[in-house]
């Protein structure tokens, strides 16, 4: 199947500048294509995965992706999707973020010869102001720039000249990559259409109207309830495991709505149409098994993190569901209990009744004794009904944690001081 046909089947194409021409081009040669990410932070989130999954598909189909880490454009600020001016970062912060994003991209795409990671600071920083105005500014009509959605949406609240010039810099990127690396296709989110077409216009003015350069954008990803994909009550879902643990990442995908899961299997996995059709059938006939969500969570977690991260996430999930938390490692506890209530504990042994009251898990000694006697209290997975039981924090989990459970689902993580 041609890569363009596959993308259409996966509902991954929003707009193309010339779909037939792009289909022919990808059928006759290995195409250079690119997508960029600005280093506005030191980690990508799952929203960034959307265009880069496209690049990965092209890579697997034998084409050559180029990833631009926008050290140059990131120091300016993309107005796309923003209703107010960005706060400029220091160049030190930009360079720090560049290094972090480069490491993430290398992990996602590997280090083979069929992928190139470049930084547009390397060529944009060499353009003088006069050269910028004479060589590029002269080729951009202000009226046309104002008509682009990305600029027009900001005219009421205002846009600085700095952000106004962003589309010129992004256009220079496309021209540079075509000239030096034969990159003929730019991919981006739906909000990048104006910037992408501006780049193609620049290429045609500089290299001739018959130069083959194409643009492709991806649909805005919305959930079945109409809200934007990728946001949770806790904020963004990051690719950096220190910001969003692999367990949290796995859980995000596992908890997707039945109405969305097949769409996400098409977009975020490399499963075949026959495999996805089977999962679609399972959603319709046995939704309570959540087989599609489980496969989605496994596939994306393995792609972003590792097969070991999947095993660990599933181990944590099973332990929390069964209550067999004693089987967890210290690092698994850090992940699984990251967002659960926590209490501070002294390192010295303490009577169970005293500990429950001192940590305010129980409102009184009377209530603590009642819950213990009734078998409602578990310490590190073990039911405790002895009122004289002494909790020794040094006994389990490297002396760092005590897991306290009251009832069927109420957990607290005791963090040991000292």
TrEMBL record:
Chain sites annotated for binding L-tyrosine: 34, 166, 170
EC number: 6.1.1.1
Protein location: Cytoplasm
Keyword Nucleotide-binding among record annotations: yes
CDD domains: S4
GO MF, one annotated term: tyrosine-tRNA ligase activity
Record keywords: Aminoacyl-tRNA synthetase, ATP-binding, Cytoplasm, Ligase, Nucleotide-binding, Protein biosynthesis, RNA-binding
Motif 'KMSKS' region per record, residues: 228-232
Family indicated by similarity: Belongs to the class-I aminoacyl-tRNA synthetase family. TyrS type 1 subfamily.
Physiological role: Catalyzes the attachment of tyrosine to tRNA(Tyr) in a two-step reaction: tyrosine is first activated by ATP to form Tyr-AMP and then transferred to the acceptor end of tRNA(Tyr).
Protein name (database record): Tyrosine--tRNA ligase
